[in-house]
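DM from R.C. (forwarded with permission)

"hey, sorry to bug you on a friday — could you get me a structure for this? deadline for the figure draft is monday and I only need the backbone to look sensible"
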Amino acid sequence: MIKLYGHEYTRTELLRRVGDISQIAGVKHYEMKMGNSKGVEAVDFRTGSGFNFTVLPGRGMDISFAEYNGIPLCWRSSTGDVAASYYEPGSGWLRGFYGGLLVTCGMTYVGAPGALDSPAHALSRFLEEGEELGLHGRVSYVPAQNVWVDSRWEGNEYIMWAQGKVREATVFGP
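My reply, with the result:
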């Protein structure tokens, strides 16, 4: 059953009342075109329940925005959604940090930028001592591959999804 405006409907009952499910809920896949967000791949979800959010396959499948009934559920920075091509190592990471509901950090490193200073560090087998480690790694700046955005009915439930693979990798390293 689908609960909408205080009433429960079956799929058939709901579709008798609307011309297209996109009047109520849906998923929209697009690419941003202006400023430093140019090239950012994004997916907007409208759930029909008042919960709406944006996933950025162009930025590691992070969730850059979320709201419920028009009330923001996340903090957004002044940078806005910044394209992965604007990545800057070290503290420059913050020039593209949009905040949001979920930002992926730390696949290879988490914390303040600095040099690898200990051979006992977990990354020491991959990195040279003294090698610079950027703020929180760069995974949030890696665009996803094999992105699949779709929706379908499963009985009386409308299911929407976005999935992709994010791989932070380097030759001879992590």
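R.C.: lifesaver. The first strand starts at residue 2 and ends at 4.
me: no worries. Helices lie at 11-17.
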